[in-house]
Each structure stands twice: as C-alpha cells, then as structure tokens.
Amino acid sequence: MILDIRGTSLISGWGNYPKIDANIILDSTEEDAVKAINSFDSIIAMGNARSYGDSALGTNILSLLPMNHFLDFDENTGILQCEAGVLLSEILDVAVPRGWFLSVTPGTKLITVGGAIASDVHGKDHHVSGSFSKHVISMDVLLSSGKIIKCSQKSNADLFQATAGGMGLTGIILRAAIQLKKIESAYIKQKLFKARNLKHIMELFEENKNVPLTMAWIDCIKGGKNMGRSILYSGHHATADECTAAGIKNPLDPNVPKKITVPFNFPSFALNSLSVRAFNFFTYHKQSSKTTSSIVSYDSFFYPLDSIYMWNRIYGKRGFTQYQFVLPMSSSAEGIDDILKRISKSGMGSFLAVLKQLGKENKNLISFPMEGYTLALDFPITRKLFPFLNELDRMVTDYGGRVYLTKDARMSAAMFRRTYRNAEKFINYKHNIDKKNIFRSLQSERLGI
C-alpha cells in the first residue's frame, strides 16, 4: 500500500500561530496509520486543525480526517461507535433528530472525536458531567510498535488515562465508542444574568451550580468596582413541552443559524484597547435587564462562533493565542481578581473572555480540568504579548493552577512540570510504550516530553 503524502505544506493550528512547513499524510485506513509510523522517525496525528497552538504540529502530520466513518449507532442506548476522524458536527447531524446529543461538548462542534479525546475537552457542564473522556466507553489506540490496544476506564486503564488528554503522544486513536445522552429537543431553555463585577458573577455561579449548563462572558478590561462585570449564560436542554409552549412545532428539528464569513485577515490595528473596550461596553449593556429567559437553538447556545466561518482571521495575519488557565476553588476568587487587575493595568485586554466553573479532577494523567474556575482569554500575537503571558504564568503557578495544553503555544517545560502534578508519570509512561519517541509535536518538544 502506498501512503497518500500530500507533500510539504505551510500549516498552523486555529490560532494561526505558529506556522510551519510539514509533510501531510492522509490516513484513510488502519493500514495507512501502521505504514506511516513505520515510515517516519516522528509523527503526530491531526484532526480538523482546531487546536489553537502547536500540539498537533510537527515535521510529519498524519491527518485523520479521511477516517470519518460511523461504525454503529444504537438508537435505543445512545452508544455510538465511529472512527477518530468523525466530526462532532457529523454526530449531531445524525443523533439530534433521533433524540440524542453529545454528553460533553466544547465551544465548537468542528473538531474530531480523536481530537476531543486527545484534548479531553470540557464544556459548559463540566461541573455536573465531567470531561469528554468520562463518556468514552472504549477506544482503539495504535502504538508505535504497530500493536492496536483496546482500552477503557476499566480495561488497559493505564493507556486510557494517558491517552485521554495526552495530546496524541501515546499513540494514534483509531476508533472510539462513546455514550450520547437522551434529549427531547434540539433547543436550550436559556437564562441570562447580568453581574456587576467578579464577586457578583462568582455568587451567581454558586447559586446556579445545580443548573446543568453555565458559562459567563466577562469584561477583562473594566477596572475599579465594576472589574469583572459579566453576563452569565445558564440553561438546560428544553423539554418537548417547553418547546411546544414557545411555539416550536418540531422540537427535534434544529434551527441552524446562517453562517457569515470573515473573508480576509483583519489589519493588525483593528484589534486594540479602544476596539476591545467598545466591544465589551456593547456586549455588557445590550443585556438591559438583570435577567432574561428564552429558548434558543443548541447551535446558538453551544457554538455561536461556528456560525462565523474563519473567525480566526479577525486577529490578523500574525495570528493569536488563547490563554486558558484553571485555578483551584480555594484560590479562584483571589487569583482571578489578581489576574484581571494585571490585565486591566496592562491594557492588553482580550477580545473574547469566557469564565466557567469546573468540577472534580479525573484520573487522567495530564487532563486539564480541576475543581475550580477556568478563564479563557484570546490575545493577538504582538511583540509585548509573550513577556506579559510569562507574568500571568507566574501568577497562575503561585495560585496552584495550570494552563490548557490544547490552547497553548508557548508555555515552558518548567511550568508544565510544576503545574501538572502527574507530568513526570506521564512522560515516563509515554517513553515506556513509545521507546523510539515516534509520537512528537512541536509542543511536546518544547515541553520536554
């Protein structure tokens, strides 16, 4: 069998930083994957290139997008078996009209199942549902030896716990069986709360901790007594009766929003402190009431940015990085307050800032979530940015937190080891099953994995 090698291409993650020349190999079959790991001295799997930084970048990239077949779907139990290159959007297209939904979803549906497992993605319901891997029944992983191992949380659990959240460094995820959850409609019963400041938004999170879905947009520029002013989005999957009462005739027929396109990279001057302040002012004040309720489509609630095709171009040709960190519950209030003050003082406000409450940490070795609060911040790449993020790194470390590997493009190896308590255990396990260190990315080399 001859590998489909598309040659050297300039490629990047979703943040458009960094950009590298890489060999792209298309993985259409299990045999292709085996041949690929026998043909190169290093390789990293890539899904839909939605990781923000360099975790799926390397000299040789194995694209799993051709492995996009459904293998089995039991409509009675909601158990789906599929190849790793299937997109979450493709699952929803099939499952939602049949009354099923993803048990956990991040803020985009344009990622692959393999990528969701490798990043152990979390969503607006982590405080009640955990991360994606909690709902993975089993997965088949191709090791560098050529052996394929089926693993789960009970069988070959060490491989499962290293691979879920392991950033593709233990092997190639080929297939997975995942548990979907039953729904009555394709809609969300949403309630919005307007928060005066950081203290207020955290009080609202606590008051709504039993609500399945919560997240907040937060103004990271505003200082003074209104620092951290926010809008909390809370909700649950609407029942059929709630949809009928709202005049929705077919509850399982989603109302997919029309897409718009960002046709070109914005000029670098378009995003500055003035434009970010203006955006934050408008976003906060367009919510005129303290609380509002409505029923919205699942697309509008979970995936608002997916309706803007190529929205990453807003940050210009230099690209951007998303700095997402989590702090433990005991230090979240003080730590996020401190970090917001530093951001406000710097004038380097984020165009998009999202605050979420996370639930308990799982057993996976380097999975990101821990019980506490996570804040995600988008910053355009500038000369001043990385020294500033180094300052935030020190603050996050001092408060006992860590940075999300899936969003990372510049964290140091020292910080990785200090903040991921199982880092050494993961590195040792990875090199034990991948003795030639075949599975490597720019990120793994930077972090010394």
Total beta strand runs: 20
Structural class: alpha+beta
The CATH topology of the largest domain comes to Alpha-Beta Plaits
- Cα gyration radius (Å): 21 Å
- Under the CATH scheme, the architecture of the largest domain is 2-Layer Sandwich
Low-confidence stretches: none
Reported for the largest beta sheet, the result is: 8 strands, antiparallel
**Largest beta sheet: strand ordering:** 15-11-13-12-18-19-17-20
How many domain regions? 2
* Beta content: 25-35%
- Shape category: globular
Provide mean pLDDT, rounded. Answer: 92
Question: What does this protein structure show overall?
Answer:
- The protein is α+β, with helices and mostly antiparallel strands and 449 residues long.
- It has 2 domains: 70-184, Uridine Diphospho-n-acetylenolpyruvylglucosamine Reductase, domain 3, CATH 3.30.465; 187-418, Alpha-Beta Plaits (2-Layer Sandwich), CATH 3.30.70.2520.
- The protein contains 14 helices and 20 strands.
- The chain has helices at 30-39, 88-95, 113-119, 126-129, 157-163, 198-207, 240-245, 273-285, 298-302, 329-346, 385-398, 413-419, 423-433, 442-446; strands at 4-12, 19-26, 44-46, 60-63, 70-74, 79-83, 100-102, 136-142, 148-151, 172-182, 187-195, 213-218, 230-237, 260-261, 291-297, 308-309, 320-328, 353-358, 372-380, 402-403.
- It has an 8-stranded antiparallel sheet. Strands 5, 6, 7, 8, 9 and 10 form a 6-stranded antiparallel sheet that branches. The protein has a 4-stranded mixed sheet with strand order 1-2-4-3, with helices on one face.
- Helix 10 runs antiparallel to helix 11.
- The longest helix is centred in the last third of the chain and has 18 residues, at 329-346.
- It starts with a strand and ends with a helix.
